[in-house]
Design goal:
7 helices; globular; about 160 residues; Cytochrome Bc1 Complex, Chain D, domain 2
Length: about 160
């Protein structure tokens, strides 16, 4: 068990390091090179319309949650428990969980960012908070796996039940 926890912690530190130096693991290398090669092969031709920059970075709830589970396991599980086993304080997943006091997903995200982890609020990268939020919304069935989650859409996700 200790080896598994150590491995997860090391993986999280590696990912956070990658994020902090600006390397994104979910942008395919061929994406950049194909744009360059298209421009070189046919300088006068119009390329297919690219989505605006914000749309290119949008991810689905399940994509965000894939990394969010690692962040949760490292930063949240001690107090809140795992997705399968509620923790000693404030379980966040399951039928008895009521997130309505936060009104919207943005309200919950702001609460998480300004108070979590208790020993160092707002110490995680912004993307990590969004990734954990995606897991909470998915696991508590506030959103579907394929739902696009971007910071500008969080006010539209109500948490009332």
């Amino acid at each position: 068990m200790i080896n598994k926890v150590t491995l997860v912690a090391a993986l999280l530190l590696f990912l956070l390091g990658m994020i902090s130096i600006g390397i994104s693991c979910n942008v395919p290398v061929s994406n950049t090179s194909s744009k360059t090669s298209d421009a070189v092969q046919s300088p006068g031709a119009q390329s297919p319309a690219s989505p605006p920059p914000a749309a290119q970075s949008e991810q689905t709830a399940d994509q965000l949650c894939q990394t969010g589970k690692t962040v949760y396991a490292t930063a949240c599980v001690k107090c809140h428990g795992s997705f399968e086993q509620p923790g000693p304080r404030h379980p966040l997943i399951g039928p008895g969980v009521n997130l309505s006091k936060y009104a919207t997903a943005r309200g919950l995200l702001e609460f998480m960012r300004t108070t979590m982890p208790p020993s160092a609020p707002d110490s995680l990268p912004s993307q990590s908070y969004l990734q954990v939020l995606a897991c909470l919304l998915l696991e508590n069935k506030y959103v579907l796996p394929g739902a696009i989650l971007s910071p500008d859409q969080l006010d539209n996700i109500g948490l009332a039940r």
